[in-house]
Amino acid sequence: MLTKTEAQAIRRVPAATLRAFLTDAMRACGLNEADAATVGGAMLEADLTGSDAHGVFRLAGYVRALKRGAMNPRASVRVLEHGPATALIDGDRGMGHVVMTYAANLAVELARASGVGWVGARRSNHAGAGAIYAAIPLRHGMVGIYGAASSVNHMAPWGGSEPLLGTNPIAVAIPSGEEAPVILDIATSLASNGAIRSYELEGRPMPQGWVQDRKDGSPITDPRRINEGTYLPMGGYKGSGLSIIIGLLAGPLNGAAFGRDIRDFATPPDGEGNVGQFVIALDVARFVPPEVFKAEVDRHIRDLASSRRLPGSDEIRVPGTGRAARRSEREKNGVPLAATLVAQVDEVAKSLNIAPLSARP
Questions:
Q1: How many whole angstroms separate alpha carbon 237 and alpha carbon 242?
Q2: Full domain range(s) for residue 6
Q3: Does residue 313 sit within a domain?
């Protein structure tokens, strides 16, 4: 629960206002109309669905990267390899939102023809919330899967102290009927980089167990000391292992960076970042009639949600249910943004010579 002071510091911004602001900012950075709308829409979707660390929160970092040339605002995505069910694309150092939207739509085309489509990407960039791209096949009645080799390393391999792994996320979207789609979007670290950075922006101490000191493994809770530590993986060695697997499939398989080859997109450029990602689309109709599958998913969601709870538990969590509820509530009442974040993006707007967010209706 927020304190009264914290609640007063939250501003609700209408979705349409936030979309227009984000799109204006991207256009001011040199993106064409279509790409600016794609990035603005993807960032808004992150904020609407509760992936707050991947929405407007990321704007300042993206603008810095675009201004110094670490990201290409006029990228031309190219297909390098194309088979019946696979493709490899070159993102031309474009914003990851643009590259992965292209990849997901191509995966759908491949799956429509072959039953499954796997599209890998190289020379891409940070793309925000992975669920956005896993959900693109969902709109066509398909299962979507997204994975990425993160654009910066924050985790150490299990038992190590050197940051050689990203928080490499995986997202899966499964269609349903009347219930909310099953959508899982997780980092392989205990807490995502964006969540940790939000504590840094707000100057709040982090929960113990998220970050450990590189020298002795002691917990770090001061967000100003993040660079002295490594993020802890979820599930101990299992999360570390999953990060390695996702990173290898998104990185080396696509001719993209992994491990020591990763260059932090937030630091001044020293060569190319070469972020790697992949999207898989799976056509449900190749296995079972879609309506039968959706009805079965609905039945199992209801069984899970209505099963016996532990004492003190308010609900049983099924991936996607909370996401759908947040989206509905925020579309109605606006996206909640901290005053510190609004002040930050207003400064960005000033640098871009566009109307600040706080001055928009």
A1: 9
A2: 1-67+332-361
A3: no
Q: Is the model more confident about 42 or about 224? A: 42
Give me the pLDDT at residue 192, please. Answer: 83
Q: CA 337, 68, 104: angle at the middle one, nearest 5? A: 65
**C-alpha angle 47/51/56, rounded to 5°?**
45
b/e per residue, 195-217, with b = 16+ CB within 10 A? bbbbbeeeeeebeeebbbebeee
Q: Cβ distance 357 to 346 under 8 Å? A: yes
Residue-averaged pLDDT of the chain: 94
Query: Do 79 and 61 have their domain in common?
Result: no
Residue 324 included in any domain? no
Residues 6 or more apart from 144 whose CB is under 8 A from it? 104, 107, 133, 134, 135, 136, 137, 138, 171, 172, 173, 279, 280, 281, 282
Q: Are residues 278 and 341 in the same domain?
A: no
User: Taking the CA atoms of the chain, what radius of gyration do you get in angstroms?
Assistant: 20
| Contact between residue 69 and residue 99 where contact means Cβ atoms under 8 Å apart | no
Task: Give the CA distances from residue 307 to residues 91, 244, 298, 318, in Å, rounded to whole numbers and listed in that order.
Answer: 45, 35, 14, 11
Which amino acid type is present at position 233? P
Residue 219 lies in a domain: no
Instruction: Give me the residues paired with residue 280 across strands.
Output: 118, 145
What is the average per-residue pLDDT within 23-45? 98
Q: How many Å apart are CA 38 and CA 91, to the nearest integer? A: 15
As a residue count, the chain comes to 361
Considering its fold, how many domains does the chain have in total?
2
0.90 surpassed by pTM: yes
Same-domain check for residues 142 and 259: yes
Q: How far is CA 229 from CA 84, 168, 209, 240, 290, in A?
A: 45, 17, 11, 16, 47
Query: Judging by beta carbons within 10 Å of its beta carbon (0-12, 13-18, 19+), is residue 309 exposed, middle or buried?
Result: exposed
